[in-house]
Design goal:
Layout (H helix, E strand, L loop, with lengths): L4 E6 L2 H10 L3 E4 L12 H11 L2 E5 L11 H17 L3 E4 L10 H11 L3 E4 L9 H11 L3 E4 L10 H11 L4 E5 L4 H11 L3 E4 L2 E5 L20 E5 L1 H15 L1
Parallel strand pairs: 1-2, 1-8, 2-3, 3-4, 4-5, 5-6, 6-7, 7-8
Antiparallel strand pairs: 9-10
Helix pairs in contact: 1-2, 1-8, 3-4, 7-8
Length: 250
């Protein structure tokens, strides 16, 4: 068994295949990575599973924004989680907060039940919760397997001190998966500062659109983003990150 784990967050089949070739251990599958990730489609999940054969954890997030969901939104999320588990997902990635900033325990418990024996990750909703150590304790009690976190800062390097304390407090009962701003150049530093053994990155690179005809003054979404720039996982960056972790394993 490997001591260290490398998870790649991907939102396309091309990115999933690049992560696989680069040596990632596991995928977090989503759509809309440029807005932090949204629930992917079932057909996309099946294609990635078939093409890579990798462990795939599926993000359940119906919209951009906060993690305080309406009853209607939660109903959709629960149905999606159940569908992905039945389709063969190896894990579900999700997070729910109450208006006061604490974990929504009843909804987390419901998803834990729907997951059965599959892996459950509490995502970066954790990074905007009111009390990270209370949330960690509650996650342990709920049977959450992994917490994806930047240490409640914009980047994991900024949050390294809290990440270190969370790793210690988790005591091996919950895996602290370090994410946000993680790349091969800082992974050794993060491992040393935090004591964590699991790392999450997208390793994005820009790819120019295949479109020859372009209408640059029309935007389909965020006006600051070009419709003709595509982001894909860089196989070489994943491989570089893998080599860093292998140095620690050795």
């Amino acid at each position: 068994m490997k001591d260290f784990l490398l998870e790649a967050c991907v939102d396309s089949t091309a990115s999933a295949e690049a992560a696989h070739r680069g040596g990632a251990d596991r995928l977090e599958l989503c759509s809309g990575l440029v807005v932090g990730g949204l629930t992917p489609g079932l057909s996309f999940f099946r294609q990635v599973k078939e093409r890579t054969g990798m462990r795939v954890h599926v993000l359940i997030r119906p919209r951009f924004g906060d993690f305080c969901y309406s009853e209607e939104e939660f109903a959709v999320m629960a149905e999606d989680a159940k569908a992905f588990v039945e389709a063969g997902a190896d894990g579900i990635v999700v997070g729910f907060l109450q208006p006061d900033g604490n974990l929504d325990l009843s909804r987390m418990k419901r998803i834990r039940e729907l997951c059965g024996d599959r892996h459950l990750t509490l995502h970066r909703a954790f990074d905007v919760c009111a009390d990270p150590f209370r949330a960690l304790g509650e996650a342990k009690e709920l049977g959450v397997n992994t917490i994806l976190t930047s240490g409640q800062r914009d980047s994991a390097l900024e949050g390294a001190a809290l990440l270190h304390d969370l790793v210690q407090a988790a005591g091996g009962k919950v895996d602290i998966l370090v994410g946000s701003g993680v790349h091969s150049a800082n992974m050794a530093q993060l491992a040393a500062k935090t004591g964590a053994k699991s790392f999450h990155l997208s390793a994005k690179k820009e790819k120019d659109s295949a479109m020859a005809y372009r209408k640059s003054d029309v935007h389909m979404g965020l006006p600051m983003m070009s419709e003709y720039t595509i982001f894909e996982t860089d196989e070489r960056e994943i491989a570089a990150a893998r080599r860093v972790l292998e140095q620690f394993e050795g």
